[in-house]
Inverse folding.
């Protein structure tokens, strides 16, 4: 008995040592560098120019016949009028009538260029929500603290911050070492096939590849949801894929006065319930593993031990992240029924019921294996699983290596501008225009230097009262200025 007890104690001691060793080995993953001395800018002028851009309703519509392209023409003219130095100094290229590429030649043209991206289009406004907006969505209202309006967060704030940074640097006589390209698409909100895709074709045709690409998709947010008091600078090193499946339940219709035990609507409802009750498997490897490492290094001892030892605490971590929609979206392919349709009259049982289910695909899953898993979960031959309109789906983006020098360069610049922030690699749950550029650089990052630490503002993206703080906007401009200036100081790129 003593030998058994002794053996147990040895095992416990060994396990404790392993857990502590792994926790200690997380180390300090914060990039080296001191807070930057940020360039002073005329923020009022910058606010006025962004407000003017918000007033131009560059709305994308899924039905492209409804798009008023005169607004995009006016927006391009507005940029040229407000930033004459930029258009005199950089080489502009109009892509497919409305998208824009700008080239800022570097002093060392043999070095691979970088690409900064944003998009000029915005999502439509739900007319039924207009009376809930503090200010009309295209009024471009700015008070002493906030710029209000559709597109401020997604993504004209980024677009104008990039333009302001280049304008300021030109005024100071700066010329970059690496050539810098800027690409503004005009239809990101509906897939980017006429804007970003055509721009990517332009680069391929001219044999242009990039050292790294920076687009929207992450930002500065509160770290409280991860148990941190510090803000998080979330840099997406991948983005989820996208697929929508159509579920079709078929049966016999009839009069509602004599229903069978199960109707097509009931069969379909059971199928949807099965999908929601059986989420697709969590995946804690790849960029999620890097994310845990960075976050864990900032934690107290006990949560640090948990984050550093996924091999033991994987189930606990999965339960923690699954407890919130945002956390759940980080670790698995999500399942979201979005459209359901059946029936033509209240006293007629329909012979067919349909539902659309949207999946955001995490790296490690594929459209093919999701279809297989959906059919296995539903397990009902009366329910067909189809691809609507012949569309199959988009794979998740390749994962850009968080250990690459380009990521470290970006992380250091973020830290120097936002010294309190913890730079965290992760996965963007939404799509960006970068999906059209995946073969043009192995280093594609999605991060916006504009943003506060109030996560409640995230619900305003595509929603009511979209807005950005003026202080945050100023910091975003300064971030792009510092990033561009740092290119000439970093010899590893």
């Amino acid at each position: 008995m003593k030998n058994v007890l002794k053996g147990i104690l040895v095992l416990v001691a060994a396990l404790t040592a392993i857990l502590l060793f792994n926790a200690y080995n997380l180390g300090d993953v914060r990039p080296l560098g001191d807070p930057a001395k940020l360039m002073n800018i005329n923020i009022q002028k910058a606010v006025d120019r962004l407000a003017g851009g918000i007033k131009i309703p560059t709305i994308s519509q899924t039905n492209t016949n409804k798009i008023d392209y005169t607004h995009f023409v006016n927006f391009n003219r507005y940029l040229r009028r407000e930033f004459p130095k930029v258009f005199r100094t950089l080489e502009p290229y109009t892509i497919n009538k409305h998208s824009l590429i700008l080239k800022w030649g570097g002093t060392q043209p043999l070095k691979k260029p970088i690409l900064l991206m944003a998009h000029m289009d915005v999502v439509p406004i739900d007319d039924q929500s207009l009376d809930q907006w503090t200010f009309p969505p295209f009024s471009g209202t700015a008070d002493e603290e906030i710029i209000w309006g559709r597109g401020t967060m997604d993504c004209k704030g980024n677009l104008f911050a990039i333009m302001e940074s280049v304008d300021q640097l030109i005024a100071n006589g700066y010329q970059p070492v690496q050539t810098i390209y800027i690409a503004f698409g005009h239809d990101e909100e509906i897939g980017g096939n006429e804007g970003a895709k055509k721009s990517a074709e332009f680069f391929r045709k001219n044999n242009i590849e990039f050292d790294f690409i920076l687009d929207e998709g992450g930002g500065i947010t509160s770290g409280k949801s991860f148990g941190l008091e510090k803000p998080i600078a979330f840099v997406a090193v991948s983005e989820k894929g996208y697929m929508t499946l159509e579920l079709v339940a078929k049966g016999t219709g009839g009069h509602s006065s004599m229903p069978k035990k199960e109707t097509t609507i009931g069969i379909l409802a059971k199928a949807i319930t099965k999908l929601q009750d059986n989420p697709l498997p969590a995946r804690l490897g790849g960029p999620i593993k890097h994310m845990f490492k960075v976050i864990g290094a900032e934690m107290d001892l006990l949560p640090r031990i948990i984050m550093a030892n996924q091999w033991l605490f994987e189930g606990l971590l999965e339960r923690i992240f699954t407890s919130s929609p945002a956390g759940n979206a980080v670790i698995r392919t999500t399942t979201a029924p979005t459209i359901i349709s059946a029936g033509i009259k209240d006293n007629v049982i329909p012979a067919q019921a349909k539902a659309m289910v949207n999946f955001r695909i995490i790296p490690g899953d594929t459209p093919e294996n999701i279809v297989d898993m959906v059919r296995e979960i539903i397990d009902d031959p009366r329910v067909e699983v189809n691809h609507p309109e012949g569309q199959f789906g988009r794979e998740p983006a390749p994962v850009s290596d968080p250990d690459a020098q380009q990521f470290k360069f970006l992380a250091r610049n973020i830290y120097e501008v936002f010294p309190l922030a913890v730079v965290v690699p992760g996965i963007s749950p939404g799509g960006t225009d970068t999906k059209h550029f995946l073969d043009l650089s192995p280093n594609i990052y999605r991060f916006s230097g504009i943003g506060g630490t109030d996560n409640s503002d995230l619900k305003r993206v595509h929603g009511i009262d979209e807005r950005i703080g003026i202080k945050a906007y100023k910091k975003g401009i300064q971030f792009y200025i510092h990033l561009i200036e740092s290119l000439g100081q970093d010899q590893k790129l």
